[in-house]
């Protein structure tokens, strides 16, 4: 699929603000009950597609990650790219942190992107403080970094990235909630994109990966550059981990 910068997209029939439990599909009712810990201002017209409920980062966690990523990244890192923007939970926190000169949010599903844009506006994020990209994040990253064999695909100059100033955040789909069936989650089984696919795309730049709380630390340790380190943080709410984030430095071995 192509990659393009978009303005405000319209909400569609797939975008919902549920008022009562009766309206909510059974498999997301659990998340709807947690709606105020996911978006504290849920009642202020927050919209999600049904699929987005599974992967949205709860607001206190998103806020903390924005603080941590902002502090861990060198001041020379001024552009933040959110590869899987979803309904906007992380992008909103990154924008409200005020840490980044440029934020680029990528999402492949137009209705979900419309929700993210709408939710960002509902949180008071100025329209021009996020560049919204509709398309496949792997195509985008390869074109923007110039690592795509087919060139930049006539990418909008606003969307180009330079490695020295870019940090990537990736909160990919994990393949549903079945990650809980494994005591230690094998990142090679993550669906539809396994860890290797995500790492290959991200490794030219420093990146933070939002992963299942039980992810195999031995697999994450392999992402460290020679002589370097990966920092892993468990993000908790009410005494229980929601997810872990691996903060991975750029790999200087990548050519180009
Ligand atoms: P969860 O395991 O579905 O819920 O998601 P919970 O309430 O912690 O589990 P339970 O043991 O109490 O039943 C936990 C967190 O993981 C959510 O808040 C999301 O932030 C995140 N999350 C869950 N899934 C399935 C995904 C996913 O596919 N992708 C991403 N990026 N995050 C997810």
TrEMBL record:
The record's InterPro entries line, in alphabetical order, gives: RNA_cap_Gua-N2-MeTrfase, SAM-dependent_MTases_sf
The entry's keywords:
Methyltransferase, Transferase
Q: Which GO terms describe its cellular component?
A: nucleus
Reactions catalysed, semicolon-separated, are: a 5'-end (N(7)-methyl 5'-triphosphoguanosine)-ribonucleoside in snoRNA + S-adenosyl-L-methionine = a 5'-end (N(2),N(7)-dimethyl 5'-triphosphoguanosine)-ribonucleoside in snoRNA + S-adenosyl-L-homocysteine + H(+); a 5'-end (N(2),N(7)-dimethyl 5'-triphosphoguanosine)-ribonucleoside in snoRNA + S-adenosyl-L-methionine = a 5'-end (N(2),N(2),N(7)-trimethyl 5'-triphosphoguanosine)-ribonucleoside in snoRNA + S-adenosyl-L-homocysteine + H(+); a 5'-end (N(7)-methyl 5'-triphosphoguanosine)-ribonucleoside in snRNA + S-adenosyl-L-methionine = a 5'-end (N(2),N(7)-dimethyl 5'-triphosphoguanosine)-ribonucleoside in snRNA + S-adenosyl-L-homocysteine + H(+); a 5'-end (N(2),N(7)-dimethyl 5'-triphosphoguanosine)-ribonucleoside in snRNA + S-adenosyl-L-methionine = a 5'-end (N(2),N(2),N(7)-trimethyl 5'-triphosphoguanosine)-ribonucleoside in snRNA + S-adenosyl-L-homocysteine + H(+)
Note one Pfam family from the annotation.
Answer: Methyltransf_15
- Is the Transmembrane helix keyword given for this protein? no
Please report the name of this protein according to its UniProt entry. Trimethylguanosine synthase
Q: Write out the GO MF terms.
A: RNA cap trimethylguanosine synthase activity
Q: Does the keyword Methyltransferase apply?
A: yes
